[in-house]
Design goal:
The chain has 9 helices and 7 strands, in the order ββαβαβαβαααβαβαα. With 259 residues, it is an alpha/beta fold. α7 links the parallel β6 and β7. The C terminus is likely disordered.
Length: 259
Protein backbone atom coordinates (compact mmCIF):
# COMPACT_ATOMS: atom_id res chain seq x y z
CA UNK A 1 0.00 0.00 0.00
CA UNK A 2 1.37 3.41 -0.96
CA UNK A 3 1.30 6.46 1.28
CA UNK A 4 -1.58 7.86 -0.82
CA UNK A 5 -3.68 4.69 -0.65
CA UNK A 6 -2.90 2.81 -3.87
CA UNK A 7 -2.47 -0.97 -3.72
CA UNK A 8 0.63 -2.04 -5.63
CA UNK A 9 1.08 -5.49 -7.15
CA UNK A 10 4.66 -6.65 -6.63
CA UNK A 11 6.79 -9.77 -6.60
CA UNK A 12 9.93 -10.66 -4.63
CA UNK A 13 12.56 -12.97 -6.12
CA UNK A 14 15.09 -13.87 -3.39
CA UNK A 15 18.81 -13.87 -4.15
CA UNK A 16 20.24 -17.14 -5.41
CA UNK A 17 23.62 -18.24 -4.08
CA UNK A 18 24.48 -14.83 -2.63
CA UNK A 19 24.24 -13.14 0.73
CA UNK A 20 20.59 -13.73 1.51
CA UNK A 21 19.80 -10.15 2.45
CA UNK A 22 22.77 -8.02 1.42
CA UNK A 23 21.21 -6.37 -1.66
CA UNK A 24 17.79 -5.86 -3.23
CA UNK A 25 17.25 -4.32 -6.66
CA UNK A 26 13.81 -2.75 -7.15
CA UNK A 27 12.91 -2.79 -10.84
CA UNK A 28 10.80 0.21 -11.90
CA UNK A 29 9.30 -0.58 -15.30
CA UNK A 30 8.62 1.66 -18.26
CA UNK A 31 5.23 2.96 -19.35
CA UNK A 32 2.81 0.17 -20.47
CA UNK A 33 4.99 -2.53 -18.88
CA UNK A 34 4.65 -4.52 -15.65
CA UNK A 35 6.51 -7.13 -13.64
CA UNK A 36 4.67 -10.07 -15.24
CA UNK A 37 5.59 -9.23 -18.84
CA UNK A 38 8.34 -11.37 -20.42
CA UNK A 39 10.58 -8.41 -21.31
CA UNK A 40 10.51 -7.23 -17.69
CA UNK A 41 10.89 -10.75 -16.34
CA UNK A 42 14.05 -11.13 -18.45
CA UNK A 43 15.48 -8.06 -16.73
CA UNK A 44 14.43 -9.37 -13.30
CA UNK A 45 15.95 -12.78 -13.97
CA UNK A 46 19.25 -11.32 -15.18
CA UNK A 47 19.58 -8.89 -12.29
CA UNK A 48 18.73 -11.76 -9.95
CA UNK A 49 22.32 -12.94 -10.39
CA UNK A 50 23.41 -9.96 -8.31
CA UNK A 51 20.88 -9.84 -5.47
CA UNK A 52 17.26 -10.16 -4.54
CA UNK A 53 14.85 -8.43 -6.90
CA UNK A 54 11.48 -6.80 -6.38
CA UNK A 55 9.39 -6.16 -9.47
CA UNK A 56 6.27 -4.01 -9.23
CA UNK A 57 3.40 -2.73 -11.31
CA UNK A 58 3.09 1.03 -11.19
CA UNK A 59 -0.38 2.41 -10.48
CA UNK A 60 -2.72 1.98 -13.41
CA UNK A 61 -0.65 -0.93 -14.72
CA UNK A 62 -1.16 -4.67 -14.37
CA UNK A 63 -2.90 -5.62 -11.13
CA UNK A 64 -2.10 -2.43 -9.22
CA UNK A 65 -5.01 -0.14 -8.46
CA UNK A 66 -5.32 3.54 -9.31
CA UNK A 67 -4.52 5.32 -12.56
CA UNK A 68 -1.21 6.18 -14.16
CA UNK A 69 0.07 9.72 -13.69
CA UNK A 70 2.94 9.02 -16.13
CA UNK A 71 5.75 9.62 -13.66
CA UNK A 72 4.32 12.02 -11.08
CA UNK A 73 2.74 10.12 -8.17
CA UNK A 74 4.55 6.93 -9.11
CA UNK A 75 7.30 7.95 -6.70
CA UNK A 76 4.91 6.75 -3.95
CA UNK A 77 4.76 3.35 -5.68
CA UNK A 78 8.54 3.08 -5.76
CA UNK A 79 8.69 4.23 -2.13
CA UNK A 80 6.42 1.29 -1.29
CA UNK A 81 8.73 -1.11 -3.13
CA UNK A 82 11.79 0.22 -1.32
CA UNK A 83 9.98 0.03 2.02
CA UNK A 84 9.04 -3.61 1.34
CA UNK A 85 12.68 -4.43 0.61
CA UNK A 86 13.69 -2.90 3.96
CA UNK A 87 10.91 -4.81 5.72
CA UNK A 88 12.30 -8.02 4.19
CA UNK A 89 15.60 -7.25 5.89
CA UNK A 90 17.75 -6.11 2.96
CA UNK A 91 20.70 -3.95 4.01
CA UNK A 92 21.22 -2.22 0.65
CA UNK A 93 18.34 -1.26 -1.65
CA UNK A 94 18.86 0.14 -5.16
CA UNK A 95 16.07 1.08 -7.62
CA UNK A 96 16.75 0.29 -11.28
CA UNK A 97 14.32 2.26 -13.44
CA UNK A 98 13.57 2.10 -17.16
CA UNK A 99 12.17 4.96 -19.28
CA UNK A 100 9.24 6.35 -17.23
CA UNK A 101 10.49 4.19 -14.36
CA UNK A 102 13.92 5.75 -14.82
CA UNK A 103 12.47 9.21 -14.29
CA UNK A 104 10.55 7.89 -11.27
CA UNK A 105 13.74 6.38 -9.83
CA UNK A 106 15.54 9.72 -10.17
CA UNK A 107 12.70 11.64 -8.53
CA UNK A 108 12.27 9.07 -5.75
CA UNK A 109 15.99 9.19 -4.94
CA UNK A 110 15.79 12.98 -4.77
CA UNK A 111 12.50 13.62 -2.95
CA UNK A 112 11.05 10.24 -1.96
CA UNK A 113 10.32 9.25 1.62
CA UNK A 114 12.35 6.03 1.59
CA UNK A 115 16.17 6.35 1.44
CA UNK A 116 18.07 4.30 -1.14
CA UNK A 117 21.74 3.31 -1.30
CA UNK A 118 22.21 4.10 -5.00
CA UNK A 119 20.04 4.56 -8.08
CA UNK A 120 20.19 3.43 -11.71
CA UNK A 121 18.22 5.18 -14.46
CA UNK A 122 18.02 3.58 -17.92
CA UNK A 123 16.61 5.32 -21.03
CA UNK A 124 14.99 8.08 -18.98
CA UNK A 125 13.87 11.52 -20.16
CA UNK A 126 15.51 14.60 -18.70
CA UNK A 127 12.62 16.96 -19.42
CA UNK A 128 8.83 16.81 -19.38
CA UNK A 129 6.65 17.14 -22.49
CA UNK A 130 9.42 16.18 -24.91
CA UNK A 131 8.05 15.75 -28.46
CA UNK A 132 11.24 15.68 -30.50
CA UNK A 133 10.82 12.12 -31.80
CA UNK A 134 7.96 10.43 -33.62
CA UNK A 135 7.61 7.86 -30.83
CA UNK A 136 7.10 10.59 -28.24
CA UNK A 137 4.61 12.47 -30.40
CA UNK A 138 2.54 9.29 -30.66
CA UNK A 139 2.84 8.72 -26.91
CA UNK A 140 1.55 12.23 -26.18
CA UNK A 141 -1.52 11.48 -28.30
CA UNK A 142 -2.07 8.26 -26.37
CA UNK A 143 -1.83 10.01 -23.00
CA UNK A 144 -3.32 13.40 -23.77
CA UNK A 145 -6.47 12.55 -25.75
CA UNK A 146 -9.66 10.73 -24.80
CA UNK A 147 -9.35 8.38 -27.77
CA UNK A 148 -5.72 7.64 -26.92
CA UNK A 149 -6.54 6.86 -23.31
CA UNK A 150 -9.35 4.55 -24.42
CA UNK A 151 -6.91 2.63 -26.63
CA UNK A 152 -4.42 2.42 -23.77
CA UNK A 153 -7.11 1.15 -21.39
CA UNK A 154 -7.89 -1.63 -23.87
CA UNK A 155 -4.19 -2.51 -23.67
CA UNK A 156 -4.37 -2.69 -19.89
CA UNK A 157 -3.03 0.75 -18.93
CA UNK A 158 -5.41 3.07 -17.09
CA UNK A 159 -4.36 6.72 -17.45
CA UNK A 160 -5.74 9.58 -15.37
CA UNK A 161 -7.70 12.13 -17.42
CA UNK A 162 -6.97 15.16 -15.27
CA UNK A 163 -3.36 15.77 -16.29
CA UNK A 164 -0.84 17.52 -14.08
CA UNK A 165 -1.72 20.57 -12.05
CA UNK A 166 0.51 23.57 -11.43
CA UNK A 167 3.20 23.60 -10.23
CA UNK A 168 4.40 20.74 -12.40
CA UNK A 169 6.18 17.80 -10.76
CA UNK A 170 9.93 18.19 -10.37
CA UNK A 171 11.62 17.36 -13.67
CA UNK A 172 14.08 14.47 -13.78
CA UNK A 173 16.93 16.85 -14.62
CA UNK A 174 16.16 18.91 -11.51
CA UNK A 175 15.96 15.74 -9.41
CA UNK A 176 19.36 14.60 -10.72
CA UNK A 177 20.92 17.82 -9.46
CA UNK A 178 20.04 17.05 -5.82
CA UNK A 179 20.59 13.27 -5.64
CA UNK A 180 23.27 12.60 -3.04
CA UNK A 181 23.73 8.83 -3.49
CA UNK A 182 25.72 7.06 -6.23
CA UNK A 183 23.94 7.50 -9.55
CA UNK A 184 24.30 5.54 -12.80
CA UNK A 185 22.67 6.86 -15.98
CA UNK A 186 22.49 4.37 -18.87
CA UNK A 187 21.35 5.29 -22.38
CA UNK A 188 21.66 4.03 -25.95
CA UNK A 189 22.69 5.86 -29.10
CA UNK A 190 19.79 4.28 -31.00
CA UNK A 191 17.08 5.13 -28.47
CA UNK A 192 14.03 6.06 -30.58
CA UNK A 193 12.25 7.90 -27.76
CA UNK A 194 14.90 10.12 -26.16
CA UNK A 195 18.16 11.13 -27.90
CA UNK A 196 21.44 11.26 -25.99
CA UNK A 197 20.94 14.95 -25.11
CA UNK A 198 18.69 13.65 -22.32
CA UNK A 199 21.22 11.46 -20.46
CA UNK A 200 23.93 14.06 -21.01
CA UNK A 201 21.71 16.70 -19.40
CA UNK A 202 20.97 14.39 -16.46
CA UNK A 203 24.67 13.69 -15.94
CA UNK A 204 25.64 17.38 -16.17
CA UNK A 205 22.98 18.24 -13.62
CA UNK A 206 24.21 15.58 -11.20
CA UNK A 207 27.84 16.65 -11.53
CA UNK A 208 26.94 20.35 -11.25
CA UNK A 209 24.98 19.52 -8.11
CA UNK A 210 28.11 18.06 -6.52
CA UNK A 211 27.49 14.34 -6.97
CA UNK A 212 31.00 12.94 -7.41
CA UNK A 213 29.61 9.40 -7.76
CA UNK A 214 27.49 10.08 -10.84
CA UNK A 215 28.36 8.04 -13.93
CA UNK A 216 27.04 8.08 -17.48
CA UNK A 217 27.19 5.03 -19.76
CA UNK A 218 26.41 5.73 -23.41
CA UNK A 219 26.09 2.44 -25.28
CA UNK A 220 26.36 2.24 -29.05
CA UNK A 221 23.87 -0.54 -29.82
CA UNK A 222 21.42 -0.05 -26.97
CA UNK A 223 17.83 0.76 -27.97
CA UNK A 224 15.10 1.77 -25.51
CA UNK A 225 14.50 0.50 -21.97
CA UNK A 226 13.61 -3.13 -21.16
CA UNK A 227 12.97 -4.09 -24.78
CA UNK A 228 16.28 -2.68 -25.98
CA UNK A 229 18.73 -3.60 -23.24
CA UNK A 230 21.08 -6.58 -23.64
CA UNK A 231 22.39 -9.05 -21.09
CA UNK A 232 25.91 -7.58 -21.09
CA UNK A 233 24.56 -4.17 -20.08
CA UNK A 234 22.37 -5.71 -17.37
CA UNK A 235 25.42 -7.57 -16.06
CA UNK A 236 27.37 -4.33 -16.05
CA UNK A 237 24.60 -2.62 -14.08
CA UNK A 238 24.47 -5.47 -11.56
CA UNK A 239 28.24 -5.40 -11.13
CA UNK A 240 28.28 -1.61 -10.72
CA UNK A 241 25.60 -1.82 -8.03
CA UNK A 242 27.43 -4.46 -6.00
CA UNK A 243 30.72 -2.58 -6.31
CA UNK A 244 29.07 0.71 -5.36
CA UNK A 245 27.43 -0.87 -2.31
CA UNK A 246 30.77 -2.34 -1.20
CA UNK A 247 29.67 -5.93 -1.73
CA UNK A 248 31.58 -8.95 -2.98
CA UNK A 249 32.00 -8.68 -6.74
CA UNK A 250 30.47 -11.23 -9.08
CA UNK A 251 32.33 -11.35 -12.37
CA UNK A 252 33.73 -8.22 -13.96
CA UNK A 253 31.46 -5.19 -14.24
CA UNK A 254 31.21 -3.95 -17.82
CA UNK A 255 30.66 -0.26 -18.39
CA UNK A 256 30.73 2.40 -21.05
CA UNK A 257 31.45 5.69 -19.35
CA UNK A 258 32.25 9.27 -20.19
CA UNK A 259 33.28 12.07 -17.89
Amino acid sequence: MTSDGVTISANHAPALGLGARDLCLVVAHGFTNGWRLPRVQRVVDRLGQFGGVIGLDFRGHGKSTGVSTVGDREIHDLDAGVRWARDLGYRSVVPVGFSMGGSVALRQAAIGREPVDAVVSVSAPAFWYYRGTRSMRILHLAVGTRAGRAIMRARGVRIGAGGWSEPLPMEPVAAASIIDVPLLIVHGHIDHYFPIEHPKALHRAAVSGGNKQAQLWLIEDLAHAESGIDDATLDGIGGWIRQTCGLEQIGTPVGWSIS
